[in-house]
Every structure is written in C-alpha cells, then in structure tokens.
Amino acid sequence: MSMKRREPEQGGMWVATQALPRSPGHVFYEKLNEVLATGGFDQFVEELCVPHYATGEGRPSIQPGV
Predict the structure, then answer these.
(1) Alpha carbon of 14 to those of 3, 19, 20, 21, 29: distances in Å?
(2) How far is residue 6's CA from residue 39's CA, in Å, rounded to a whole number?
(3) CA angle 19, 23, 27 (to 5 degrees)
(4) Positive or negative torsion for Cα 21, 22, 27, 31
(5) Cβ proximity of 65 and 45 under 8 Å
(6) 3-61, pLDDT tens digit by residue?
(7) Cα–Cα nearest to 48, from 31, 36, 29, 65
(8) Which residues contact 64 (CB under 8 A, 6 or more apart)?
(9) What secondary structure does DSSP assign to the chain, as a single string?
(10) Is 58 left (phi over 0), alpha (psi -120 to 50) or beta?
(11) CA–CA separation, 7 vs 45, rounded Å?
(12) CB–CB of 46/63 below 8 Å?
C-alpha cells in the first residue's frame, strides 16, 4: 500500500471587483484620454480594425478602445 501525502486543495482565487480599492487615477492619463477623445482617436482606430473582425463566427469582437 502506497503512503503518499495528499496535498491540500487550493482555495478559490475569485475576488469581487467591488471589494478592490479604487485609486483616483493619474492626471497624465486623464489628460491623455481627454485629448484622444477630443481628436476622435477611438473611432478612427475602430474603423481601421473593422476589416479584421470575424462575422458570424464565435463571440462578437471587443472594440479596440475597450
């Protein structure tokens, strides 16, 4: 009879995002997002990516700005 030690099972790794602390962010990234939004950067990149989206296969694509 083999007497192997049994390893304990690993616990769950799920953490509710609401339980995580929130930081106020950084002024640089807030300003960068403002400049990109004003210039329509997200829309421009999304239009460039449209030909690469799969149609009718699998899950819908996630927009590049996300």
Answers:
(1) 33, 11, 12, 15, 28
(2) 59
(3) 160
(4) positive
(5) yes
(6) 777 777 777 788 888 888 888 889 999 999 999 999 999 999 989 988 888 777 777 77
(7) 65
(8) 42, 45, 46, 49
(9) ---PPPPPPP------GGGS------HHHHHHHHHHHHTTHHHHHHHHHGGGS-SSSSSPPPPTT-
(10) left
(11) 49
(12) yes
Which pair of tokens denotes residue 28? 């640089």
Report the distance separating Cα 13 and Cα 15, nearest Å. 7
* Tokens representing residue 35 in the block: 């400049």
